[in-house]
Amino acid sequence: MKHLEEYRNADIAARYLDDIHKVVTRPWSIMEICGGQTHSLVRNGIIELLPQSINMVHGPGCPVCVTPVAIIDKAIHLSRMSRVVLCSFGDMLRVPGTRESLLSAKAAGADVRLVYSPLDVVQLAKKSPGSKFVFLAAGFETTAPANALALIQAEKLGLDNFYVLSAQVLVPPAMELLLSDADTQVDGFLAAGHVCAITGYMAYLPLARQHQVPIVITGFEVLDLLLGILHCVRQLEHGEAEVANQYARVVKPNGNSQAREWMARVFEVSDREWRGIGTIPQSGLEPSIKYRRFDANFAFAMANVPAETSHSCIAGQILKGMKKPGDCASFRKECTPLHPLGAPMVSSEGACAAYFNYAKISS
Ligand code: SF4
Question: Do the Cβ atoms of 152 and 133 come closer than 8 Å?
Answer without folding.
Answer: no
